[in-house]
């Protein structure tokens, strides 16, 4: 995949690109207001980072503790080394219960593992019950954001979709009306479901309990109406103790959507009376990241999406341009860890402004890790020939100050007189939508020298 090429499809629709940018910036501003209203915000972030660092350092023991406690509560714990095994396990559980109608709440892990297509191939019906995810599913589309999966879709498009699929009034765009129509149809799916699949936001090692956060209460319905509940979690979702949840629950919703708290933070301790709870713990490349000192803290991510909402590249290029389940800054770190060759363009889809690092509630040094990925990709020989050539030329010039000065001079003068086709052509991707600024008559060094000379002269005159 190539981020720049995929982004072209998104930015070609200028109106959508601007609207998407504004919508996410609005969420970012809501997050800022919420963060500002909590005086101990920075202390909470620091605590969260320390708890996660401790968890990652003790992950094997904590996972075993969690398994023992969850099993004692009556849950069945399964381990999956990769996406295939995860899908096989989930299918096996459903199959052994004769379940073919499944409701699923939002779970990025199941997206990562492509669970829906796997189960559908086996003749099962899987309905995504988070409203945004359901809209995406009805369009046979993919989520473009981990918290706001349908953020790339306008309400007019949802109206058309619901008219076609649910028979709502033609041209209806009222969110309340459309949401009510979705609610009625989803309620039928909940009532008919034979199993409910949920993700896991936090798993508590000390108690063996799970926490699932939603704004729509759909995970609760899915987990409590059918007798079979399957909870799928990445192995990094652990927190050591119940008291740690307070730190993360305060940070999560504020960072994600600018709400003081998620509408439903549901705790599951073992199966419901008469029911079964299966917990599938998935590695799928996570333990490889755990052993890498540069990228291990990326496993601290609590999937709030704040780094996406603030990222100037994500906001303007859309989530689908990343070609991976988790897009944005954190996705650009996690995806190359799974397949550096395939996702080598992602760490370069970054301005290194550091805004993602500033907002991350668990203090992941995102832009530093993205920079480090660039070095890793260059070292592995995965850079394209033209990028390598550009870097070699830049290094050659920058290592020779006299040459750097001359080249700067030639470019400054040359750009002033060069015809348009020299400045704007297929090699200058940046210039497709932008005009180059007027070249300055003097270089930075010349201006610096002039300023220093002037200061010297003033000092001399005063003395
Ligand atoms: S990296 Fe940080 S800001 Fe981004 S989704 Fe994860 S927790 Fe949120």
In short, what is this structure?
54% of the residues lie in helices and 10% in strands. It is an alpha/beta fold and 463 residues long.
What do you see in this structure?
The chain is 54% helix and 10% strand. With 463 residues, it is α/β, with parallel strands linked by helices. The N and C termini lie far apart (65 Å). Helix 2 crosses helix 12 (242-256), helix 9 packs across helix 10 (175-192) and helix 16 (328-338) runs parallel beside helix 18.
**Spatial arrangement of strands, main beta sheet:** 1-10-7-4-2-3
Heteromolecules bound: iron/sulfur cluster
Radius of gyration: 26 Å
- Termini separation comes to 65 Å
Helix fraction?
A: 40-55%
Unreliable stretches: none
Please report the number of helical segments: 22
Average pLDDT number: 95
| Sheet having the most strands | 6 strands, parallel
Structural class by sheet pairing and helices? alpha/beta
Beta-strand percent range: 5-15%
General shape: globular
Report the strand count: 10
């Amino acid at each position: 995949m190539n981020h720049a090429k995929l982004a072209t499809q998104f930015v070609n629709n200028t109106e959508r690109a601007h609207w998407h940018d504004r919508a996410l910036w609005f969420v970012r501003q809501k997050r800022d207001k919420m963060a500002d209203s909590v005086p101990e915000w920075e202390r909470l972030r620091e605590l969260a980072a320390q708890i996660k660092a401790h968890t990652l350092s003790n992950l094997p023991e904590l996972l075993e503790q969690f398994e023992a406690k969850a099993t004692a509560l009556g849950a069945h714990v399964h381990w999956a080394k990769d996406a295939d095994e995860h899908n096989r396990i989930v299918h096996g559980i459903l199959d052994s219960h004769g379940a073919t109608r499944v409701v699923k709440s939002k779970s990025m892990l199941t997206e990562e593992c492509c669970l829906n297509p796997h189960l559908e191939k086996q003749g099962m019906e899987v309905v995504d019950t988070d409203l945004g995810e359901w809209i995406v599913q009805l369009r046979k589309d993919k989520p473009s954001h981990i918290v706001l999966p349908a953020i790339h879709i306008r309400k007019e498009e949802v109206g058309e979709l619901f008219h076609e699929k649910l028979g709502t009034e033609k041209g209806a765009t009222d969110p309340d009306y459309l949401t009510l129509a979705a609610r009625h149809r989803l309620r039928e799916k909940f009532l008919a479901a034979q199993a409910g699949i949920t993700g896991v936001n936090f798993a508590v090692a000390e108690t063996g309990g799970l926490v699932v956060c939603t704004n729509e209460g759909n995970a609760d319905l899915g987990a409590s109406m059918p007798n079979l509940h399957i909870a799928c979690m990445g192995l990094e979702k652990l927190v050591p103790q119940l008291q740690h949840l307070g730190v993360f629950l305060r940070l999560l919703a504020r960072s994600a959507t600018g709400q003081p708290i998620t509408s439903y933070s549901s705790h599951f301790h073992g199966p419901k009376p008469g029911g079964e709870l299966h917990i599938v713990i998935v590695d799928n490349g996570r333990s490889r990241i755990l052993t890498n000192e540069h990228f291990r803290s990326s496993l601290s991510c609590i999937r709030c999406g704040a780094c996406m909402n603030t990222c100037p590249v994500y906001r303007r290029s859309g989530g689908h341009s990343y070609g991976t389940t988790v897009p944005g800054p954190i996705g650009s770190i996690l995806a190359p860890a799974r397949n550096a060759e395939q996702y080598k363009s992602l760490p370069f889809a970054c301005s290194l402004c550091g805004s993602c690092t500033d907002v991350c509630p668990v203090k992941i040094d995102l832009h530093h890790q993205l920079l480090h990925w660039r070095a890793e990709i260059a070292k592995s020989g995965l850079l394209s020939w033209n990028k390598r050539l550009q870097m070699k030329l830049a290094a050659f010039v920058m290592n020779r100050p006299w040459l750097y000065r001359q080249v700067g001079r030639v470019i400054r003068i040359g750009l002033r007189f060069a015809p348009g086709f020299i400045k704007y052509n297929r090699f200058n991707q940046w210039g497709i939508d932008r005009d180059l600024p007027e070249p300055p008559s003097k270089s930075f060094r010349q201006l610096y020298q002039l300023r220093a000379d002037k200061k010297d002269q003033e000092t001399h005159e005063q003395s």
